[in-house]
Amino acid sequence: MSAVRASALLTAKGVSKRFGGVDALSNVDFTINQGEIYGLIGPNGAGKTSLFNVLTGIYTADGGEFVFDGLTLNGLKPNDVAARGIARTFQNIRLFANLSALENVMIGRHVRTHANVFGAILRNARTRVEEKEIEKRAHELLEYVGVSTHANTLAKHLAYGDQRRLEIARALATDPKLLALDEPAAGMNDTETASLKELFHNIRRDGTTILLIEHDMKLVMSVCDRVLVLDYGKKIAEGSAANVQKDPAVIAAYLGGEVELDLTGAP
Amino acid sequence: MWRFLDRKKYPRAAWVGIVLIGIALVALPFALSGIGTAWVRITNLAILYVLLALGLNIVVGFAGLLDLGYIAFFAVGAYTYALLASPHFGLDLPFWMILPIGAAVACLFGVLLGAPTLKLRGDYLAIVTLGFGEIIRIFLNNLSQPVNLTNGPQGITLIEPFRVGSFSFAARETIAGLDVTGPVKYYYLLVLVVIVIIAINLRLQNSRIGRAWEAIREDEVAARAMGINTRNMKLLAFAMGASFGGVSGGIFSAMQGFISPESFGLIESIMVLSMVVLGGMGNVFGVILGALLLSFVPEVLRYTVAPAQEALFGRMLIEPEVIRMLLFGLALVVMMLYRPAGILPSALRKRELETR
Question: How high is the ipTM of this complex?
Fold first, then answer.
C-alpha cells in the first residue's frame, strides 16, 4: 500500500461500552487510514458488532470517542453518522424485505437527495430530475454489486448471497467514505466469497475505505491490509495480516475459544 | 382493477374511464336527490370519511404508526372553524382563511402528539394515541369554564356556511334550470377537495418522502442506518395526517352548522381506522373504497332492515341500530379472516402477508 498516503480516516480513542457488568468494549484504540481495507476479527462475543453499533450511533459509548474525517462522532444519531459518510451492513441482514431490490437501493439515496414534501406534492422540475437520478444511480449500483437482473425482485425473495450484495449496494448508495461490513461473507460458498473479494477491491479502487468484520479467515487474511483483533472487548493485536496471525496472543484467543480456524490463509 | 386507468398502457381506455367517472361524479347528486335529499347528505358524509381515511392512511398505511386517536384532529379542525365563524365569539372570518388556519392548528396538534411518542411503536403507540383522542374530547366537553371557550357539551351552533361573496353554500337556488340544494353544492366542493387529496397521497407515496416512510415501516433501525431522520419523517407523517383531518373538520363544521364533542368520540376514530384497514392499508384506492363501503352500508341497512323484517315476520324483531352493528362487526371479522390485507391491498401489504 505504498501508493496510498497514510492519512487517518477514522480514529478510535479509548472507546468503551458496558452492558450491565459486562465490558463489551474496553479502551479500544485504532486508526483506519484512507483507502485501506481494515479487518476486525475476534472470537464470538469479542465485541466486534458492539464496536460497529457504537461507531454507527446505535449505541452510545460509555467512554472514549471516534474521530471521523477530523470530527468527533460523539453524540451523533445513526442517521447523522450516515450523513457524515459511514454506511454499514448488518450481521443478520436487515434489508427492507417487502420492497424490491431497486427500491432498497433508492432508499439508500435518501440521505444524498433533497426533495421535501412540497417537491414531492408539486413534482416540480427539480424533483423529477432528482427522481430520475436516484433511479439511475440505483440501477448502476445494482449492476456494480451484480444483482441487476433482480432489480424488481423483492429483497426477501433474493438468494442469500444476493441479499448480502444488495445490502452492500444499499450502503454504497449513501456515498460513504467508510463502508462498514458486518460478516458479509457469512453463509457464502467459495465461489461467492471469491467474487465478493473482487467486489471489495473494486470498492476500494473507487475510493471507499472498508472496515470488515469477518469470520472467514481466508478472506480476511487475503483481502485486508491491516487487522485488529478483539477478545473480550479488548484489543489484543493490530497490524498486517501476516504479523497478526503469528501473534501468540491471537493464537491463544482463538485456540482457547470454540472457533477452529486455519490461520495460514492458504487455500 | 385500476389498471385500465394506466394512461401509458391504455391511453384510450384510460381517458374513456376518466371521462365516465367524471360524468358519474357530476350527475350523482341529482340522481340521489331523486331518492331523497337525505342521500346527498349521506354521500357528503361518506366523502368526508374518505378525506379522513386518506389522512389517516398517511400515518397508518404509509409510515406504519398505529393511531387510535385520529378523530381528535378532525375535532380540532371542526372547532377551529366553528369558533372563528359563529356568534360564539362573534367572529365571521371567510372560509378560505379559516380552513388553512384549521389545518395549521391540527398540524400543530399532530406534532404535539407525535413528539412525545416518537420512540413508541405498535401497541404502545396505539394506547397513547387513544388517550390523546380522549383528552381532546374531554377538553372540548369541559372548556366552558372558567372561560367559555367551547361551550361544553352543548356544542357550538349557528356556524356560518361557506360563502363566496353573495353565493352561499347553504342556500337553495335554481341554477340553469336545475334545483341546486345546499348539500349538492357541498358535494361538489367535497369532490374537488377529495381529488386534490388523492393526488397529494399518490404523489407522496411515489417520492423520496414516501420511500422513507416505507423504510421506517419495514425496519426502523436499518432506515436510520441509511441516513433517514426517522424523527422528522414520523413527525411529518403525523403532521400531514393531522392537517388533512383539520381540513375535513372545517368542512364538517360548515356543512353541519352545529358541532358538539359527541361527534368526536372513540368510535369515530375506530371507524376511520377500520376503513383504512378494511380497504387496504397503504393503498389509496383501497382506502377510498373502504371508507365508502363503511359509510354507505350501514345507511343502506338503516333503510332496509326494518322493511325487510316487516315483510318477513310481519313485525320488527330486532332494532335496525342493533342489527347494523352486528352485521358491521361480522363483516369486519370475515374480512380480516379472508382478506387480511384489505379489499384492495397495497402491493406492500400483499407481499408482507405472502409466505415469508
Answer: 0.89
